[in-house]
């Protein structure tokens, strides 16, 4: 039998029908839904008189719109101040109730960001096909699953048929060799990968992340990397199953147990690319050379090591690229040649589906411990990815460390990652953010986002500007 | 699904690379639970000089005179000419809904982000990939001639200029058929119900844990 990649195996195992015209029907095992991209899909189902094919394959939670202050959260949906957000969250509740879909509602302790609760609850498992009406669904690929974001019409299609009409993507291997330096995190790895291949480098591909760095990386770190596969243009990112995967999955509420566990493990251990499997594109990166990263522009590929200087558009020969650098510098109010460490931050956001899991919060707390947020910083906040992450952090006393540093400790949700709720940047403000997109206006009208790791965000909060977290005294990584 | 056969219309520019979906339709407008009405907020942050709010009457907002869609020469445009990696970022289908609601029927670019590309077809909006050099040339011609129009012919898979140049584009057969005939692709898939059930039965036998129901236990 021909050697297969991990993606080939996942694709083959879910192929319901290959059509003559090159399209295929792919079976979907798990469908996660949230309030923003589903109301029109439910409406479509109702209008056509259709029912979900397999209600018990779905799991819902509101995340994008939910407020993150305790005051506003206390009263549940009724307490949401923004009337339009309230309608959207209420609509999700109503739709889930009407169709019998399990939902972690706004004040359920398991509520959280869709991509955090999937793996955390065991609803998302190795070997599955997983979709959600959100581009960061690729996060789940860390489990050795084929996971990708879909649009609302596709949400409706999967609800009605349990299938997706898809075309097979090409295979790309991103191999990061060696060992990461002290203070260098999975977020830095993925930003460095995007800097290398560009925001469209993965378009049309499913990316498998391999190499020594990934073999030793924690599951949560793998999720951070797969999460941003879409920022490299790839709809799906994935990592092969190994013992680290199994240790993570075991005992989760929706994971198989007893005999089924043993049977599942046997199948999951096949979820890796065979020796000699062919990739259409291979990118090899030396992990030991990666440094803490800071994005300076308005696209995730506009990112540099913290010790670097802002690029000079005059050095760029491609006119379209030169113009985008010029436009980015103007939007970000930065000058060519300026050291990255000179950039002052007005706000700090630690959260989002990229970096809101317990390890991220531990990393931020380790830097904040015994320190204070700089007086020039208007606001710094940590927004845990789920109610369970929040509870775990509190059990470890991390919330106390975080608050003592002058950082707000919030309720779970997407929050300032896309600013659909009250958490947003003011016009012209710079933000050290652990989220995944630095697009114009993403975190608020006129807001200026710099993507960094949780440790780098915490360090910027303390210094009031970007600094290399490795230079803070007493950092024991 | 809305059908698409041939469109002849004015071409408007979106002359920058990596136009993301936040730019096409900013997040505050995603709170709507409807599919329509997004056109007035298409490219909101570029089009207007103030910060837009949902459910707002846009007719009195200060507009950015430098933005092409606000200029007289591009009024009534139905074809958007764009740069590479158009539609990157989030999966929000609100982006094609907004383009469609504004009146665009086709977008031409050297490359598109995957999810956006896919979402377009579901809404009768045709994304067309032409080479970078052809796109460069079309930009030049468009800037030169006020009222520059193109004809997009899906059946022939061609983009034609008034002066007679023709450019072929690729589109996969299934999507083309769905668009030409305005087919309901859910209905089409449901015609394969037997194949889906057969797959489920075989899979349930070999990997039963995949069919454990998500239940409401806390
Ligand atoms: S945290 Fe941000 S990127 Fe992640 S799902 Fe929410 S809005 Fe999307």
Question: How would you concisely characterize the structure shown here?
Answer:
The complex is a heterodimer of chains A (about 475) and B (about 220). By secondary structure, chain A is an alpha/beta fold.
Summed up, the helix count of chain A is 16
Task: Give the number of domains of chain A.
Answer: 3
Average of per-residue pLDDT values of chain A: 96
Strand order, sheet with most strands of chain B: 4-3-2-1-5-6-7
- How far the N terminus sits from the C terminus of chain B, by CA atoms, comes to 40 Å
Give the radius of gyration of chain A. Answer: 22 Å
- Judging by the overall fold, what is the CATH architecture of the largest domain in chain B? Alpha-Beta Barrel
Count of DSSP strands of chain A: 19
Backbone structural class of chain B: alpha/beta
The name of the CATH topology of the largest domain in chain B is Aconitase, domain 4
Question: In the CATH hierarchy, what is the class of the largest domain in chain A?
Answer: Alpha Beta
Identify every distinct bound molecule in the structure, by name, code or SMILES: iron/sulfur cluster
As a percent range, the share of strand residues of chain B is 15-25%
Could you report the average pLDDT of chain B, rounded to the nearest whole number?
A: 94
Cα end-to-end separation of chain A: 45 Å
Features of this protein?
heterodimer, A: 477 residues, alpha/beta, Aconitase, domain 3, Aconitase, Domain 2, 3 domains, 5-stranded parallel sheet, 16 helices, 19 strands, B: 218 residues, Aconitase, domain 4, 2 domains, 8 helices, 7 strands, 31% helix, 15% strand, binds iron/sulfur cluster, 3-isopropylmalate dehydratase small subunit (chain B), EC 4.2.1.33 (chain B), branched-chain amino acid biosynthesis (chain B), AconitaseA/IPMdHydase_ssu_swvl (chain B), lyase (chain B)
